[in-house]
Structure formats: structure tokens, C-alpha cells
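Box 3.1 A note on notation
Throughout this textbook, protein chains are presented in two layers. The first layer is the amino acid sequence; the second is a C-alpha cell string describing backbone geometry. Keep the layers aligned when reading.
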Amino acid sequence: MQTHGRVAALAEGALMAALTVVLVLAGYFIPLFQFLTNIIWTVPIVVLIVRQDLRLGVMATFVSGLVIALFTGPVNAALLFSQFAALGLMYGYLFKIKARPGPTLMLGAAVALLSLLFSLFLTAKLTRLPWGGLFQELEATFNYTLEFYRRTGILERMGQQGMTPEQIQAALTSMIDLSKLLLPGILISAALMAAFVNYLVAQRILLRLRLLEKGLLPFRLWQLPWYAVWGVIAGLGLWQLGDYYHLDLAHRVGVNILYIYIPLLAGNGLAAVAFIFHKLRLAPILRVGVVVFALFYLPVVLISLITLGLFDPFLSYRRTHVAGKGE
């Protein structure tokens, strides 16, 4: 009887490994789906760990990596698995022990960030390209594009519309400088997004399979803790301190903190608006009208959402519902 259970577990592990391979190869051969498949290919591994154990999940991950290396090459397989495999294995273990969503997401973001940094380090080693080489290649691409526009006469037509080559060059240079400044924030935001999307997809699948008792609260009840505002204060303080005393490091850290907080605050504000809509029970036609209005005045709406998201944690109108688990 024990042998039969072991064989069934191995068969399930092989099935999940095959599904992982299919997801990865679908993104590899159909680039349109690559962004999505690169994030969710670990979900079968998560399901396997919850149903069986972590050891079988590690084994399935290793086997699927070998198979994928046969199709895409060992370099592509190594880069992909170095970025997402650890996240899937950790989520599987935490879902299995029924860890709380908050700590799970925080650990997921940390693992995703470390994995992303390791993947970038591995890419630099394999391609023998220095860390600054990425921006050098980007600058070379912009210069080549500018020269192509000049040869084809596109610059002349743009000049007739009021854009000079110097202005275009300055805009491209500013874009590169801004990318350099915000690189840490971009990497951290990417890790947060990868961890969050992976968690949501894995949770939805586990709920469908009845391997998870309950998931996150409805979106309208999501709320940042009140002490999250200290991050905004720190970002603003370091930014202003760096500008006033010409401290480049403080300026960079402050700007990146604020960059990371912008989507968090906007999401918190959007959740607050969703809660208000739910309580007011607006008709569908009115909701559509509000959405259309927001699209026409997107910058103003975005600033309003960020402001609401910043002050919302200090208000109690949603906290009581969160404490009551949405009842």
C-alpha cells in the first residue's frame, strides 16, 4: 500500500513537471505569452508541494529544468530557473504549512528580489557584460536610432513640427539618466509584482482544487498599515536632504523609495474607491461613467488616488470591515 502511494506521488510529480515544461516552452516559442508564463510557470510546482511535499517539488523542478534545457539551451534554462524557481518552492512550502498571506507575500518579495539580482549577476557573468554595459548598449541603440532617423529624413519632418535633433537627443539622454537613477526602484518593483502575481495565481488554483481553505480578502478591503507612511516620510526626507546638502546617495535612495511607494499608494487608494463604490451600490452605468471620466483625466485621477492611498490608513471606515473579515 505504501509502495502504491509512492508511485502515485511520483506520477503526480512527473505530471506537474511536464505541465511546467509546457508553460515555459509556450512562452519561449510564443513571445507574446512570455511575460505571463515566466511568472506563473511555478504554479504546478506549488500545487505539487501542497499536495505532496517539498522534496518532490524540488525533484520536479530539477527534472523540468533539464528538459527545458534540451529545448532552449542550458543558458536560457539557468537564467529562467534562477529567477523564479526559489519563489515557487518557497510559496509551495508556505501554502502547505498554511502561513498567513502578509508574511508570505513579504517573504515572496524578498526571495523574488534576491532571485532577480542573482539572475542579473548570472547574466553578466555568462555574457561577460559589465553592470554598466546595459546602459552603454542602450545609449548605443538610441544613437543608432537617431542616426537612422537622420538618414531617412524623419528628423527633418519632426523638425517641421518643432522638434530639433538636439531636443530629441536631450530627451533620450534624460530618459537614460532617469533609468539609471531609478534602477534599484525598478528592480524592487519588478520583484514585488512578480511575487504578487505569482501568489494570486497560485492561490486561485489552490482554492479551485480545494487545497486552500480561504484566500485574500476582497480587493476593496485591502489596506496598507498606518505605519507605512513612515516610508513615504523617509523617502521625502532623504530626497530633500540630498538636494539641499548635495548628497547624491541620499537623493537616490529617497527618490527610489518614493518610486516604490507610488504603485502601493495608488493601489491602496483604488481599493478605498472600490470600497466606497461597494457601499454606495452605484448602478453599473454610473460606474462605467466614472471609469470613462477617470481615463480622460488620468494624471489628476492618479494623483488623487496616491493622495487618498496615503491618508486612507489613518481612517477607520475600512478598518472595521477588515477586522470583521469583510462581513
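The radius of gyration is 24 Å. The first helix runs from residue 2 to 29.
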